[in-house]
Amino acid sequence: MTFSLNKEKENIVAAIALRIRQSLELEIILNQTVAEVRQFLQTDRVLIYRFEPDWSGVIVVESVKKPAHTVFGFKIEDPCFASRHIERYKQGKVHILDNVEASNVSPCYADVLGAFEVKANLVVPIIASEELWGLLIAHHCDSPRQWQASEIQLLKQLSIQVGIAVQQAELYEQVQSLNTYLEQKIKQRTAKLQNLVQFETLIRKVTEKVRDSLDEPQILQTVTQEIGRILNIERCKIELYDSDRTTATVAYEYTIELPDCQGRVRQVTDFPELDSQLLQKQSLQFVEKVPELKPLKTQATRLICPIFDDQGVLGNLWLLRPKEEFFETFEIMLVEQIANQCAIAIRQARLYQQSQVQVQELARLNLLKDDFLRTISHELRTPMSSIQLASETLEVLLEKEMGENKSATFTRVLDIFRSACHRQNQLVNDLLTLCYIDAKKETITMQWLDLSVWLPQIIEPFEERINTQEQQLVVNVPPRLPLFKSDASTIKRTLSELLNNACKYTPSGETITIEAQPMQDGIQLSVSNTGIEIPLSEQQRVFDKFYRIPHHDPWQFGGTGIGLALVKKLVELLGGKIRLESQKGKTAFIISLPCETLKNEL
Ligand code: ATP
Ligand code: MG
Predict the structure, then answer these.
(1) N or C: which terminus of the chain has fewer CB atoms within 10 Å of its end residue's CB?
(2) Mean pLDDT taken over the chain
(3) How far is the CA of 49 from the centre of ligand 2 (A)?
């Protein structure tokens, strides 16, 4: 009998120890423990009592013979318990009462036992992590009972196992909460990283927009919207200072549901502390009552970053969040970067607008100038024709009256008069051609031109001058240059003007060269001269109307600066192009003229 009892006892201990190793569910282990102990002891109630920090306690698990014996969930507050038993239990002492009524227990303990109808009582402490955690208790309610040493031994052994289970469960709980904590941390970090990535994207997007666009409203509206969306904030707005920074106006705004304040103007003097910091280019963050939300009496966190560049502060970027949500350092840094981009966008857009105004003004002035030019050329034309006619008539009359008798001085004065008339007429005609270049198109007559016959006629009027100025003239035309189809008078006017310039600007002793050569789809003509260069910075401008390079006129012939402008227009009228190459002491004007060509048979 003793042998089988011992065997059963060993089995129970082994089964519970195994369960503890296999399971982390403390509640299940405890329930099974009390059930098996009650079965073994054949008693009315077995329970586990867990201490609270103040040494009161709760019955957390029980096994009862009759439902009427249940005491589950009871909270026991025995004022005498702590002083009498705790120290003993902590040392692992067992409390054995075979007959409650016959023993001399303290009244408060007797009350507790009486309330639970306990006749015999066996209590074993449960120690977990070297702390007194609770008690494993067997109650006999029908009659007193003499507890056997083996029974006491079993409870002692089981209480050790329960202690291990409790410790194990507590450790598991700690690991679990540590896990939850770590998971939360990882989630927070991931969210932060995602935010960072989104922010980086926003900065890139804004930077690209600023680079590609000059549309200030579009850029700044996008900025407020994207910041609002990415930071998930209630409101984002951009306010701009006026030119003397006395007022600030909300120019762009993103808001979810708050009343919007776009267009609202505030006086800088109303918030001296705030603006003095912002105007010193410093961001700030604070919690403040929001005037717009007065009825709701809500507070909010505000972040304000000034929008500035090296020329000063232009405005501020405001962000609003619920008061308990602060802006983190990395967010502030990123918002500041965006504010920088906003400053670039605003500055760029304003410069562009200014330049547009200037461009329009210049275009208007140009139109006025053209109008003036047209009127003046017309007005000059009639008197010039009369003067020319008068000079020719005068010449005829004088010839008739005086014949061979007129003096040499007379003849020279007449020559000067004639050539001045011719020059003046030429100038008026050139001006009219420039003003009415489109009309000139109508007068173009295409014909086959043979340069070998034609060029000497163009050069002839310049020969004497070239000799007098001690310049050399080289004509470089291949013997069988093809005939080409073009307008003779336009080609003549163009080459004459280039030759005229070459004579005017070539120092004595230097060379003027006229060249012609066939191209794949036309002909190339060039007039070049040595001894003078046109600086790179002037090379585009020499083709502008009325432009002359200052101090660049070695013979002091003067001029009006329309020669090259006219040449360019005429070449373009024929569908050609003119370019200037000037380097290493040589200046060349090269005309490429696409045109029909014909093999020269002569
Ligand atoms: P205009 O031709 O109206 O009498 P201009 O000769 O000064 O006056 P353009 O023919 O338009 O005006 O020439 C513009 C400027 O270009 C000249 O003032 C001169 O400084 C420069 N230039 C033109 N041709 C040459 C050249 N062959 N060599 C050096 N400089 C030249
Ligand atoms: Mg000229």
Answers:
(1) N
(2) 89
(3) 117
* Residue 371 Cα to ligand 2 middle (Å): 23
Higher pLDDT pick, 466 / 16:
466
Q: Which atom of ligand 1 is nearest to the CA of 565?
A: 11
Only one residue has tokens 């008197």, namely: 383
- Measured in angstroms, how far is the CA atom of residue 375 from the centroid of ligand 2? 23
DSSP state of 134: E
Q: List the single range of 248-252, 409-413, 491-495, 535-539 with lowest mean pLDDT.
A: 409-413
Q: What is the pLDDT of residue 134?
A: 94
Residues 432 and 448 grouped into a single domain: no
User: Which atom from ligand 1 is nearest to the alpha carbon of 506?
Assistant: 28
- pLDDT for 298 beyond 70: no
Between residues 574 and 192, the one the model is more confident about: 574
Of the listed ligands, the closest to the CA of 544 is 1
> Is residue 407 included in any domain, yes or no?
yes
The residue whose C-alpha atom lies closest to atom 20 belonging to ligand 1 is 549
Q: Given the CA of residue 560, which atom of ligand 1 is nearest to it? A: 3
Rounded Cα distance between 555 and 558, Å, is 8
The pLDDT-based confidence of 542 (bands split at 50, 70, 90) is very high
With the most atoms of ligand 1 within 8 angstroms of its CB, the residue from 424, 505, 539, 582 to mutate is: 505
Task: Tell me whether strands 586-594 and 57-64 are parallel, antiparallel or unpaired.
Answer: unpaired
Q: Which of 391, 412, 439 is the last residue of a domain?
A: 439
Residues 332 and 289 in one domain: yes
In this structure, the residues whose C-beta lies within 6 A of any atom of ligand 1 are: 501-502, 504-505, 529, 532, 534, 542, 548-549, 552, 559-565, 587
Domain region containing 318: 189-357
CB 145 within 8 A of CB 120: yes
Put the strands of the sheet holding 95-97 in their side by side order.
Answer: 75-76, 57-64, 45-51, 131-140, 120-128, 95-97
The Å distance, Cα 472 to ligand 1 centre, comes to 19
Q: Who wins on pLDDT, 585 or 438?
A: 585
pLDDT in tens, 257-272: 777 788 999 999 998 8
Query: Residues 311-351: pLDDT tens digits?
Result: 999 999 999 988 888 898 888 998 999 999 999 999 999 99
Instruction: Let me know whether 399 and 460 are in one domain.
Output: no
Domain count, the chain: 4
Residue 3 has pLDDT above 60, yes or no: no
Ligand 1 center to residue 501 CA distance, Å? 6
Q: Which residues contact 5 (CB under 8 A, 6 or more apart)?
A: 150
> Distance, CA 422 to ligand 1 centroid (Å)?
20
* Residue 112 reports pLDDT greater than 90: no
- Taking the C-alpha atoms of residue 143 and residue 119, their distance in angstroms, rounded to an integer, is 5
What predicted TM-score, i.e. pTM, was given to this entire model? Answer: 0.52
The phi, psi pair for 6, rounded to 5°, reads -60, -40
Q: What is the pLDDT of residue 363?
A: 93
Cα distances (angstroms) measured from residue 495 to each of 111, 282, 434, 500, 570: 134, 67, 16, 8, 11
In a domain, 414, yes or no: yes
Chain position carrying tokens 């702590």: 82
Residues 211 and 296 in one domain: yes
Count of all residues that appear for the chain in the document: 602
| pLDDT attached to residue 1 | 45
* In a domain? residue 70: yes
